Amino acid sequence: MEASEVEFLAEQEPVTIIPNFSLDRIYLIGGDLGPFNPGLPVQVPLWLAINLKQRQKCRLIPPEWMDVEKLEQIREQERNEATFTPMPSPYYMEFTKLLLNYAADNIPKADEIRTLVKDTWDTRIAKLRLSADSFVRQQEAHARLDNLTLMEINTTGPFLTQALDHMYKLRTNLQPGGSAQSQDF
Amino acid sequence: QGTKLELPLWLAKGLYNNKQKILSVELPTVYKESWRTVFSADANVVDLHKLGPYYYAFGSQMLNFDSPENAELAQTILQTFISRFRRIMDSSQNAFNEDTSALVARLDETERGLFQAGQKGLNDFQSWEMGQASQITASSLVQNYRKRKHSELDA
Amino acid sequence: MWVKRQERMLLEHADTARKHTQQPHYYDCYCLNGIQFLKSTPHHQQQYGRLFGCATTPRILPISASYNLGHLQGFAVSFQAWMNEKFSPELLESKSEIVECVIEQLEHMEENLKRTKGGDLKASIHRMEVERIRYVLSSYLRSRIRKIEKYFPHVLEKEKTRTEGEPSILSPEEFAFAKEYMANTEAHLKNVALKHMPPNLQKVDLLKIVPEPNLDAFVFLRVKEKQENILVEPETDEQSEYVIDLDKDSQHLIRYKTIAPLVASGAVKLI
Question: Lowest mean pLDDT: which of A123-127, B19-23, B35-39, C201-205?
Fold first, then answer.
């Protein structure tokens, strides 16, 4: 899956906006939205929020976790623990990128937030590589990967699974008669 | 009888037959014990491309020929990959937007394929992060074509 | 932008396929133009609900319920058929009923939209949603076509050996496409090479020369319903087999073969 497709999934997630227009309840295939009244907060999917923001039709309310103090805590916890800590949103990376790119004026301390999230991401990716290496060394058959987000899995996943598939082929060599099937090398 | 000669693998495989013993196969140097010791000492220092370039694939094929060394050979190939894995992963996931030819020079062909997969993941993510994923750019082919036209005109 | 680009790719793909199969109408259902419809039945509606996580009634003129958190989550989770197909090494069971139902929804919505004025805010929101759903649908069908083209002899073999009552992995259109693809490949091989070979070398068994899907491939998954006692085969001789439990919402990296039935039943989803 490409990063832009993961972003597409993230855009289905809800976010709160404050519209500056009026519109009756709207009945989409995926569910109903609104009604929209100027100054009254309302929940919409992220894709719509971004679009309305681009048309200057609303103000975005950042999610609760998008806050310097909270993110500092998250970063520290991620650095201190050996395992992956739970993230405030399964799409924390996508939310950060989209909101900061399109609605930075609605988010206090946008630059600090960007750095904090990126630091957390880097720590997690380093851990992911570490665990990938030990998975390969131990020749494990199964790993539990709780709290990893889709975006994280998708940046390293295809590389890792391809390596594991290759290793599996090499291992079938060890079985007597195993090499007979390995003609598709 | 008793003549030594070099044959392509496909032909040797075709002629090889357990019952009639038309021919026996000598392992290529890189799979022999002396090299196996080198691999187990530190597989990372070896230039697999120079020795290979199909180290894993060719090695696996050698197992088709009955040899007392087969078990050890299969083990060495597997362990070689395991010990080289980390370096391939790190180099393919760190090199963004730079010339990678030095990084892949010592990799065997399978490893190069893997390196590319890692690069793809990284590039895809980085360009998404920088907001380039949604931009359509002219393919490099087209750009080169234009350049070539120019130089032709200049000449 | 990229939604548009993807769509153009789909159309191009469809064009090539048309030339390929010389069957101009088959691909239309993938382009969403002039498709055959099925009447919407309660069964369809249920299927639709499962795919898009909305309440059971697909509607143009709606009833109630808000686009609330629950809905949205349902919506996200239910892009599942799409994601499973993207990540699974083999072709999964066809969800053609859902596909038809979604296409029907889109058609209705587009009909309604034609009647509205261009600059209308409400209409533009509807249009965006339609584009998004259409993207998922196209991407889903495209990954299936890719697998059919890659594994066609095996796909057809599976279809041939299917027992009565077992659901087909191919939709009727995909089945026609796979057969045509097979026939064309065979004809092509014959014309280009085989007929110039000595008679004893003129036969080729496509089942043997086309690679099978690699069911041993590792996949990432997320558990939706708790599963106990999943047997994990050892990777090396020194290890022995062991069982694991898959807790709800936990994530795992494991060989596809081990959990393939759970993907089919919907107990886990690939990620």
Answer: B19-23
Please report the domains of chain C, with CATH numbers, ordered by start residue. Answer: 2-144 (1.20.58), 151-209 (1.20.58.1030), 218-270 (3.40.5.60)
Instruction: Return residues 107-146 of A near B (CB < 8 Å).
Output: 125, 129, 132-133, 136-137, 139
Q: Per-residue pLDDT averaged across C11-27, rounded?
A: 38
Using a CB-CB distance cutoff of 8 angstroms, which residues of chain A are in contact with residue C255?
141
Q: CATH fold of A3-170, please?
A: Methane Monooxygenase Hydroxylase; Chain G, domain 1 (1.20.58)
- CATH assignment, B9-153: 1.20.58.2050
Contact assignment for A171 to C126 by CB distance below 8 Å: no
pTM given for the model: 0.80
Q: Does B133 touch chain C (CB under 8 A)?
A: yes
Classify B109 as helix, strand or coil. Answer: helix
* φ, ψ at B32 (rounded to 5°): -80, 170
Chains that touch C (3 or more CB pairs under 8 A): A, B
Q: Residue A8: name the closest of A111, A154, A158 by CA.
A: A154
**Choice between B1 and A39, residue whose per-residue pLDDT is larger:** A39
Q: What percent of chain C has pLDDT over 90?
A: 38
Predicted-complex ipTM score: 0.89
* Cα(B130)–Cα(B137) distance, integer angstroms: 15
Token pair listed for C76: 């996200």
